[in-house]
């Protein structure tokens, strides 16, 4: 049984984009409870979920938190395609291998540039390192997309949803950059670069659902 869905959301952050894309791709109706970037106390998030981080999905009164837990919850309450975590042992393990890489290695690269923006400390060597690491990560993505629209086939999984918001942060338009100081900093210093046509098209394909 599932109740009305409400998403407690810090809109432009990667884990939040991931979950919003998941809800849209499943075709779920939901309301939004927005959280402001400068709301340091997160009192409402704490009150509703017992912890301070976003995203949180309220399924009726049940708080589900952590973006991966939310995608698994969506597979349970909306058990139709796209299935984010697979339905067979092999498939689940394949998705989880990509997911571990995305949440570990790629996330550590991703946080370098926005981390600098939050601290107000620009370090050109660190920017160069972040871009070089991201080039290696997107080379792997580019290769996976050689003969398919999504990383593991013809439908998106948790692997795509976990990675795409971080890659998107290297492709912000001027209009998107105008949304915040952090986004402007990303547009200036974090770039997808050349020879990533399939990756660019994959980001655009998925981010078309971010509304
Ligand atoms: N493991 C959690 C991490 C959530 C997380 O780090 N959320 C960030 C936004 S992406 C947040 O709420 N940051 C605000 C803060 O730390 O106050 C998930 O995947 O949802």
Question: Span from first to last CA?
Answer: 26 Å
Look at the structure and give the mean pLDDT: 96
Uncertain spans = none
**Largest beta-sheet details:** 4 strands, mixed
Number of strands: 4
Sheet/helix structural class: alpha+beta
- Helix share, percent: 55-70%
CATH topology of the largest domain: Glutathione S-transferase Yfyf (Class Pi), Chain A, domain 2
Query: How many distinct helices?
Result: 10
Describe the protein in words.
There is one protein chain. The chain is α+β, with helices and mostly antiparallel strands and 211 residues long. The chain has two domains: 5-77, Glutaredoxin (3-Layer(aba) Sandwich), CATH 3.40.30.10; 89-207, Up-down Bundle (Glutathione S-transferase Yfyf (Class Pi), Chain A, domain 2), CATH 1.20.1050. Helices cover 55% and strands 8% of the residues. It has ten helices and four strands. The chain has a four-stranded mixed β-sheet with strand order 2-1-3-4, with helices on both faces. A hairpin with a 2-residue loop joins strand 3 and strand 4 (62-65). Helix 1 runs parallel beside helix 3 (67-77) and helix 5 packs across helix 9 (181-189). The protein starts with a strand and ends with a helix. The structure holds glutathione. Glutathione is lined by residues 10, 13-16, 42, 52-55, 66-68.
Give the SSE map.
Layout lengths: L4 E5 L4 H13 L4 E4 L8 H7 L6 E4 L2 E4 L1 H11 L11 H22 L1 H8 L4 H21 L13 H11 L5 H4 L3 H9 L7 H11 L4
The structure holds glutathione.
Brief description of this entry?
The chain is an alpha+beta fold and 211 residues long. It has helices at residues 14-26, 43-49, 67-77, 89-110, 112-119, 124-144, 158-168, 174-177, 181-189, 197-207, and strands spanning 5-9, 31-34, 56-59, 62-65.
């Amino acid at each position: 049984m599932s109740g009305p869905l409400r998403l407690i959301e810090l809109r432009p952050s990667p884990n939040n984009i991931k979950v919003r894309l998941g809800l849209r791709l499943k075709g779920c109706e939901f309301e939004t409870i927005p959280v402001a970037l400068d709301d340091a106390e997160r009192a409402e998030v704490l009150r509703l979920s017992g912890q301070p981080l976003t995203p949180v999905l309220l399924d009726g009164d049940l708080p589900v938190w952590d973006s991966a837990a939310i995608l698994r919850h969506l597979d349970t309450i909306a058990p139709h395609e796209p299935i984010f975590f697979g339905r067979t042992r092999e498939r689940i393990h394949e998705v989880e291998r990509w997911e571990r890489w995305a949440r570990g290695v790629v996330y550590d690269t991703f946080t370098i540039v926005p981390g600098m923006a939050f601290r107000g400390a620009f370090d050109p060597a660190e920017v160069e390192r972040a871009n070089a690491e991201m080039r290696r990560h997107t080379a792997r993505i580019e290769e996976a997309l050689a003969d398919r629209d999504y990383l593991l086939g013809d439908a998106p999984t948790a692997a795509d949803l976990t990675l795409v918001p971080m890659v998107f942060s290297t492709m912000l338009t001027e209009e998107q950059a105008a949304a915040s100081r952090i986004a402007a900093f990303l547009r200036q210093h974090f770039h997808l670069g050349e020879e990533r046509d399939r990756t660019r098209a994959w980001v655009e394909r998925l981010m078309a659902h971010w509304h």
